[in-house]
Structure formats: C-alpha cells, structure tokens
Design brief:
The chain contains 12 helices and no strands. It is mainly α.
Length: 303
C-alpha cells in the first residue's frame, strides 16, 4: 500500500502539470470566443521537442547547456518536498521549506545565467528583469512560509500543511486568507503570468521570461517548458492545500479533491489573464511589495 501511495503521488506530480497549462489556455480561449488549443497540447509539444535535435550557438559555453538541466532537476527535487493534498511529502525534514524556496531560486538562477551566456543584449534585458522581479517576489514567499511556520510550530512543509491545517482555519482564518492572497501573487510572478508577463507575447519591450529562452531548442526547450509547468504545479499545490484543508479519510477521494482544486486554480489564473491587461513595468514592484506586506500582516495575525 505504501508503494502504491508513492507511485500515485509521483504520477500526479509528474503527469498533471502540463494539463494545468492546458486548462489556462482553454479558459482564455473561452473568454476570447475561440476554441483554443487542445487540453493535452503541451504533452505533445514536449514529446515532440524531446525527439528533436539541438542547435547551439558557437558563442555559448557549458553554462547555456546546463541551464535547462539544472532548472528541471531543481524543480523535480522540489516536487519531493511538497506534500500533495492530505499526503505527506516523499522527502520531509526540519527546514525543508527553506530548501524548497531555494531550489526554485537555483533553477531561476541558472535560467538567468544561461540567457546571459548567449551574449545577447536582448536576452540580457530579460534576465535583468527576471532577476529584479524574482528578488521582489521571494520575500512574499518566505514571509508567507514564516506565517505558516509560526502557526504550525515547524519549518517543514509536511507539518505546515498537515492535518492541523483545518484547526488553523478556525484559530487564524484571516491570516491564512492573507497568505493565500500573497502566494497567488507570487505564483503569477514566478510563472510569468499576467499581469506580470504575457507568455504569448513577442513584443521585445514587454518580454521577461520568454526572451531568456529564445536560443533554446529541441530537448532543452522541452525541459524548459516542462519545468515551467512543474513550477506552476508546485506553487499551485501550496495554495490548493491551504484552500482545501479537509481530509475525507479516503485516499482516492482526497486525490480527487486535490486534482479538482488544482484545475480550479488553473481556471482562476485563466480568468485573471482574460479579464485584466498586463501592468506597466513600473507598477509591478508595487504589487510584489504589497504581497510581502500582506504576508507580514499574516505573521502578525497568526497565533
């Protein structure tokens, strides 16, 4: 039974992420009055890219090739630290929440230096923007985790999001609402979603994340796309657990609740992207600072 639970957890973590991006695309297409790409389009794209060859510029070094690999590897390790639904993380220890945040930062760092390694001023512009907004988004994530740590008395994600989470809603529901709001802003920023960035844009003055991966192709680009889906899944799982802290006692029903919550969160992201425009670059730091301030209030309210 233990092996079945581990296999199920790995299967959900590895197979569900591309579907979430498909849900976002479908929701945006619905609001635009279009049919949109199939839900499983990203699975096809990643599979097609992994079967292609790679083209590398002669100006790049091993750093450029290592960027997608390290990014994907760091996110995959972070998956082991994240408790999914009511289930404990596959790898849990005191302080794993800090390692979780820094694993995401490690993948982002190598994506940035890989973009700089091309020697392109265009990609350097995107890397500079990514570094700036990421530095502003990290405090919101860390302060939100600090609020959860204060409430649970532990710095382990499995304890923060464990069985006592439902009781925490009765004691400090306001603090958890603030943490959810802060994490949602961080999710949009870390995954380059509107209002921070438009993943479908090709305007050089507004591109942030997409401009950094323009020189990647074949399996490297496939790793980047899959890694981005995993990152959305991880931060979404954090929010989904806070929103649905219930346990039915039936493991399979708990998995259903988790999957429905993740799909609903993806739909919400699609609604946000369909109902508002991308903000000006000068306004984005204010939104990220506001997310950090909200987390600070959550720490004060948590007791």
């Amino acid at each position: 039974m233990k092996l079945l639970q581990i296999a199920t957890q790995l299967a959900v973590a590895l197979l569900l992420p591309p579907l979430l991006l498909g849900v976002i695309v479908k929701v945006k297409a619905f609001f635009a009055g279009r049919v949109g790409a199939p839900l499983l389009q990203l699975y096809r794209d990643v599979w097609k890219l992994w079967r292609k060859g790679s083209v590398f510029s002669t100006t790049t070094t091993w750093v450029f090739k290592a960027g997608p690999v390290v990014n994907l590897a760091s996110v995959l390790v972070a998956v082991l630290l994240m408790p999914l639904g009511t289930h404990r993380a596959l790898l849990s220890f005191a302080g794993d929440a800090i390692l979780f945040a820094y694993l995401l930062a490690l993948g982002r760092f190598f994506t940035i230096v890989a973009a700089l390694d091309t020697g392109s001023s265009f990609e350097g512009m995107g890397a500079a923007r990514e570094a700036t907004f990421s530095a502003l988004a990290e405090p919101g994530l860390f302060l939100g985790l600090m609020a959860l740590a204060r409430k649970s008395g532990s710095v382990s994600l499995s304890q923060m999001l464990g069985p006592k989470l439902l009781d925490a809603w009765f004691d400090s529901g306001g603090a958890l609402v603030l943490v959810i709001a802060s994490f949602f802003v961080v999710l949009l920023a870390e995954n380059s979603r509107i209002p921070f960035d438009d993943p479908n844009t090709h305007l050089e003055l507004t591109m942030i994340h997409e401009v950094m991966v323009l020189d990647h192709s074949g399996p490297a680009l496939g790793m980047i796309l899959y890694g981005a889906a995993l990152k959305l899944f991880l931060l979404g799982a954090l929010i989904a657990r806070l929103v649905t802290p219930i346990s039915t006692g039936n493991p399979w029903l708990d998995w259903l609740v988790f999957v429905v919550a993740m799909v609903g969160l993806s739909g919400l992201v699609g609604i946000v992207e369909s109902t508002m425009a991308r903000l000006r670059l000068l306004h984005l730091p204010r939104l990220l600072v506001a997310a950090s301030i909200i987390s600070v209030f959550a720490i004060i309210l948590a007791r």
